[in-house]
Amino acid sequence: MNGRKALVGALSIAVAGALSGAAFAQQPPIKIGLLATLEGPFAAGGADGMRGAELALKQKNGMAGGRQIVIIKASSDAKPDVAVNATRKLVEQDKVDIMVGPLSGGEGIAVKEYSKTQPTITFINGSSGAQATTLVDPSPNFFRFNTEGAQWMVGLGKATLAKGYKRAMVIAEDYAFPYSQVQGFMSEYCRLGGKVPVKAWVPLGGKDYSSVIARIPKDVDALVVVLGGADAVNFLNQYEAAGGDKPLVGGSITVSQDILNYKGKRRDSLVGTIAGAPIADAYDAPEFKAFVADYQKNYPVSAGGYPSPSLFALVYYINMKAALDGLDAVNGDLSGGQAKYREALAKMTLKTPVGDVKLDGNRQAIGTTFITEVVKDAQGNLFNKVLSKVDGVDQLLGMKKEDFKIGSRDEPSCP
């Protein structure tokens, strides 16, 4: 009798387990919207951002939190209104559960504002790096696991002065991300005695830089260039054609792999350019080497990848990994307006190829910055070697809150 009861009990447990497993297996997939800039000046970087996000999912075999993940892609062109319209379609028509994106700074601010109208959807950044996205009127359901443009420049002002560049002209695109990059550079550079007599703000997607080149003072020691994608390529080619010979100090996106791999004579003169960035191609940490090897295996140069993943690939990878690790932490539970999921994201210590990332109270990453220098390898490829590394960089750049001023066209100033 006792044996029969035990058998019935065992069968009951087995049936219950099978039913539970079947119910679990029948959970619908989780839909993640993925937005990147695939048109306009940052198209090459956006394509590599997509590769980075896809790699994070491939490493989990298409699953997170015990559920299948379906990615629905959308494209923008670096314009805030286009990014919001693409996001709106993903959220309101495609009914995604989570958004990852966008790429560019102005886009990020606009999508952050849109996220406030969709409180049941969790928004995770792509690679946009404007300070204001999380520092000004942050959204409770917008998370950014990458450090931003100003954080990426910490240490570069000191390194620039160490090169003997005491006076520098800034040439940067006229929108939120370059404002942040210039603020991160100048706040340190000016404090240590550097001077910036001229700042030239150029339109995003500009093609003619002749008037800017004509304004370069003879007495500056270097040019601080914060241009990305096709804008950087156009400027470099035109500066070469004009006989320009000033050494360059690069913004993060100016020395990313999508720029270092363009074809042109001026490309070689990038050798020796120092920059600040969240990535360094030659970083020798085991986690980063493994990431690079996995990227190269999945996206070889012959299939459109780069010799080493770009800044955009790394940052999209980090943010997609955060989205997936968060789902693992809550076993795919997005109930209750995704409250448990967001709590898990907010408390997470994210393991990334470039070190641990934690979020501050505005759901903004605190992480690592690299100071790099462009060098050439034996095969003729350009890459960024590590000059120094700064860990634990926060959004106030180590300043007191009362001393910190967000970047703009006019802030900082040290003529």
What order do the helices and strands come in, and which of them pair?
Elements (H helix, E strand, L loop, with lengths): L1 H24 L4 E8 L5 H16 L4 E2 L2 E10 L3 H14 L4 E3 L4 H11 L6 E3 L7 H4 L6 E2 L12 H7 L4 E7 L2 H16 L3 E8 L7 H5 L7 E5 L2 H13 L6 E3 L6 H4 L13 E4 L8 H13 L12 H19 L5 H13 L2 E3 L2 E5 L5 E12 L5 E12 L22
Parallel strand pairs: 1-3, 1-4, 4-5, 5-6, 7-8, 7-9, 9-10, 10-11
Antiparallel strand pairs: 2-3, 11-14, 12-13, 13-14, 14-15
Helix pairs in contact: 2-12, 3-4, 6-7, 12-13
Describe this structure in words.
The chain has 415 residues and is α/β, with parallel strands linked by helices. The chain folds into 2 domains: 30-146 and 285-366, Rossmann fold (3-Layer(aba) Sandwich); 151-283 and 369-403, Response regulator (Rossmann fold, 3-Layer(aba) Sandwich), CATH 3.40.50.2300. It has 13 helices and 15 strands. It has helices spanning 2-25, 43-58, 80-93, 105-115, 132-135, 156-162, 176-191, 210-214, 229-241, 257-260, 286-298, 311-329, 335-347; strands at residues 30-37, 63-64, 67-76, 98-100, 122-124, 142-143, 167-173, 195-202, 222-226, 248-250, 274-277, 350-352, 355-359, 365-376, 382-393. The strands form 2 sheets. Strands 7, 8, 9, 10, 11, 12, 13, 14 and 15 form a 9-stranded mixed β-sheet that branches. Helix 2 runs parallel beside helix 12 (311-329), helix 3 (80-93) runs parallel beside helix 4 and helix 6 (156-162) crosses helix 7. The radius of gyration is 23 Å and the shape is globular. Mean pLDDT is 93; it is low at 1-24.
